[in-house]
Write a structure and sequence with these properties.
Elements (H helix, E strand, L loop, with lengths): L2 H23 L22 E5 L6 H16 L3 H7 E2 L2 E11 L13 E4 L2 E4 L4 E4 L2 H10 L3 E6 L8 H13 L2 E6 L11 H9 L2 E4 L2 E2 L8 E2 L1 E8 L2 E4 L22 E5 L9 H16 L4 H11 L6 H10 L18 H12 L5 H11 L3 H10 L7
Parallel strand pairs: 1-8, 1-9, 3-6, 3-7, 7-8
Antiparallel strand pairs: 2-3, 4-5, 10-11, 12-13, 12-14
């Protein structure tokens, strides 16, 4: 544990001790005392704070609450300013950085809004987009008096971001707050950026939500991706494209995903075993020049054949078993399953060449527009 982490832990324990003492003095019986819900501490420099949780858990609302706290803190006098300033930057002065990949979520709000599902805060000239860590570095240079930076959806940025924030916090005492997913819809670390953010953080605030399955009240840590096809919930398969850019509204198109939070029991993720037992090995064979098995499987998947390896794998694992889970097989209703498999093999597994991809799309008559959009979302744009 780092010295910064030890200080943070000691502070948390002291805060809980004070709360317990207060309740005892007020005559409360012995009971479980939880950590108090504190206002943001602008006096502590050099923090790199991760606010993590599934979609809908309140990560951006945490940022909005910080913004409201800063308005109160900025109303204080010179002595307070001395406690919150280092390196010429006042940590009560907040700038919100939004990823350019996430600007479509709330299209109906003002351009300067820090928007979340329950409302928004107007940030004026203290909010702006950034496509990568270099754009953030430019914003830091342009706003030298800003002491606290909220980097929304930080996992969407490049890996360099983690070390840029670490260097700036150590050099000037700047505080960085990153409300972000660290787990993707597969329940895996989102990407290398998320992994580095976890390694370099000084504080982590985990948030949860109720499971959004209609009959469940369990605590949820996971983001669940699903599609609606003729009103039926179809879980995203494991090989679904990792990043899909879109708005934050319910969509009835089986090509466009919806998200909610789900507990372990109701988080359906079909096709993981198929991906590693069948799809990826066929992609590896194609990379070595033997493309026939992959072509045959993609053709069967595109035709919706019950004899595809995908269909037989899902049936054997989720129907012909001791604890059937028919919800898993609803993913076979999805359009563009072959295109999703190709996107995984090309953009993520990096097993297919551009020439192979183009040839497969042409030979099987696959949906070029869908595939180009998904490859662009995942930073592997190609003209098909």
């Amino acid at each position: 544990m780092t010295e910064e982490s030890e200080i943070a832990r000691a502070g948390a324990e002291a805060s809980m001790g004070e709360a317990s003492s207060l309740l005892r003095n007020l005559g409360f019986p012995l009971l479980q005392v939880h950590h108090p819900f504190n206002h943001f501490d602008f006096t502590r420099p050099g923090r790199r704070i991760l606010v993590i949780g599934p979609m809908g858990s309140g990560k951006t609302e945490f940022s909005a609450r910080m913004w409201r706290d800063s308005l109160v803190a900025r109303s204080k006098g010179d002595a307070a300013r001395a406690d919150t300033t280092s390196g010429g930057a006042d940590r009560r002065d907040i700038f919100v950085v939004r990823s350019t990949l996430d600007t479509a979520r709330f299209p109906d709000y003002p351009p300067d809004a820090l928007a979340y599902r329950g409302g928004y805060e107007r940030c004026g000239d203290r909010i702006g987009p950034a496509a990568d860590s270099f754009a953030l570095e430019s914003l830091l240079a342009e706003n030298p008096t800003v002491g606290t930076w909220i980097v929304d959806e930080a996992s969407f940025f490049d890996e360099r971001l983690a070390y840029l924030m670490q260097d700036e916090s150590l050099r000037r005492g700047l505080v960085f707050v990153c409300p972000t997913l660290v787990l993707n819809f597969r329940r895996e670390i989102f990407n290398q950026t998320a992994r580095l953010l976890l390694e370099t953080a000084t504080d982590v605030f985990p948030l949860t939500a109720y499971c959004e399955q209609a009959e469940c009240l369990a605590d949820s840590l996971y983001t669940y991706r699903y599609y609606l096809v003729d009103g039926v919930e179809c879980p995203a398969p494991y090989f679904d494209p990792l990043i899909i850019i879109g708005g934050d509204r319910t969509k009835e198109d089986g090509r466009e995903p919806n998200y909610c939070t789900r507990c372990d029991r109701h988080h359906y993720l079909p096709g993981k075993e198929y991906t590693f037992f069948s799809l990826k090995p066929m992609g590896e064979a194609a990379a070595r020049g033997d493309i026939k098995p992959l072509l045959a499987e993609l053709a069967a998947v595109a035709d919706g054949s019950p004899r595809s390896r995908l269909a037989t794998s899902l049936a054997s694992r989720h129907l012909e078993c001791r604890a059937p889970c028919p919800e898993m097989l609803e993913s076979l209703r999805l359009p563009c399953l072959a295109e999703r498999e190709l996107a995984y093999l090309f953009a993520e597994a990096n097993l297919l060449s551009a020439e192979q991809l183009k040839a497969i799309v042409s030979d099987l008559g696959l949906d070029r527009d869908y595939l180009m959009r998904r490859l662009s979302d995942n930073r592997r744009p190609i003209e098909l």
